[in-house]
């Protein structure tokens, strides 16, 4: 199937009420491992890149990696730019070939956010790409973007007006979710998801998924959260598995980088297949 649009993946998931893992990769190893996990699970997957990752690797190099690794892939995959407040980076990624972007203007007044999001949607459409929008900054700083404290939640009418005026393809609401590691199981506003979906029919992106319970995932996905973001969990898996391997290498005084890479890769593949099972996307490739 290879690379498809965000809407092709999300619309199917929304209609059939399963969630698609939207996983933030950090380098070539994690990109390849997430794709391999999707193939193993026979699951569609949304590969996400943060602004920090785009800038650290370079947009051209990162997209070349993506193109090479997805050339012969046989499950549906798409490339998404996560939480980007920088219009120049959005334009760069769309021009190079990203399939979708999250224009994060959530720190701006809703009116200005809406005005600029309309412009981003029009720009994306020229490339056949899609746009995720949000009006409330989700608590937690991720890769240098975000806020430390919970922001005021906008009214349902304000959210509905934004979705309808902008024509965003996916909407990311604040429902008590947060980026990073939760100190306790989060208390989530499930009804807000149902209200948004019933009023607009727009697929919902669930942010701050790392640390939610399986029951919370199942409930939210059933209500219309078709795109489920995972970033912190991958970072933790990547670094803890690296640390464990390196401690063993130090104890044995055996230094073999390819063995380290293979070990870390196996953890990321397992993370991806596990998420596909949890979210119900395993076996849903077409």
From TrEMBL:
Manner of cofactor binding, per the entry note: Binds 2 Zn(2+) ions per subunit. One is catalytic and the other provides a structural contribution.
Biological processes annotated in GO: carbohydrate metabolic process
SUPFAM superfamilies found in the cross-reference section: Aldolase (SSF51569)
Binding residues annotated for Zn(2+) 2, in chain numbering: 104, 134
Pfam families per record: F_bP_aldolase
TM stretches of this protein: none
Cofactor: Zn(2+)
Keywords: Metal-binding, Zinc
GO molecular function: aldehyde-lyase activity; zinc ion binding
Catalytic residues (positions): 82
Binding positions (dihydroxyacetone phosphate): 180, 208-210, 229-232
Matching InterPro entries: Aldolase_TIM, Class_II_FBP_aldolase, FBA_II
Binding residue positions for Zn(2+) 1: 83, 179, 207
Protein name (database record): Fructose-bisphosphate aldolase, class II
Source organism of this protein record: Microterricola viridarii
């Amino acid at each position: 199937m290879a690379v498809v649009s965000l809407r092709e993946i999300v619309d199917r998931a929304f209609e059939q009420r399963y969630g698609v893992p939207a996983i933030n990769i950090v380098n070539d190893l994690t990109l390849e491992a997430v794709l391999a996990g999707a193939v193993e699970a026979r699951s569609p997957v949304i590969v996400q890149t943060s602004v920090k990752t785009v800038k650290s690797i370079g947009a051209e190099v990162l997209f070349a990696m993506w193109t090479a690794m997805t050339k012969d892939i046989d499950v549906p995959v798409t490339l998404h730019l996560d939480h980007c407040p920088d219009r120049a980076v959005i334009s760069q990624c769309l021009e190079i070939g990203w399939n979708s972007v999250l224009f994060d203007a959530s720190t701006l007044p809703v009116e200005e956010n809406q005005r600029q999001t309309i412009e981003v949607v029009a720009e994306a459409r020229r490339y056949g790409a899609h746009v995720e929008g949000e009006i409330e900054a989700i608590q937690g700083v991720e890769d240098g973007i975000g806020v430390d404290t919970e922001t005021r939640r906008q009214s349902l009418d304000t959210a509905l007006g934004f979705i309808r005026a902008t024509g965003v393809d996916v909407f990311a609401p604040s429902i008590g979710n947060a980026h990073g590691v939760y100190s306790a199981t989060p208390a989530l506003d499930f009804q807000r998801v149902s209200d948004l979906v019933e009023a607009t029919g727009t697929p919902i992106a669930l942010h701050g998924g790392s640390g939610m319970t399986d029951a919370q995932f199942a409930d939210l996905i059933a209500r219309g959260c078709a795109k489920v973001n995972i970033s912190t969990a991958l970072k933790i898996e990547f670094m803890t598995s690296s640390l464990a391997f390196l401690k063993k290498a130090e104890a044995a005084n055996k230094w073999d980088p390819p063995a380290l890479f293979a070990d870390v890769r196996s953890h990321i593949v397992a993370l991806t297949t596990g998420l596909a099972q949890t979210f119900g996307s395993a076996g849903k490739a077409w």
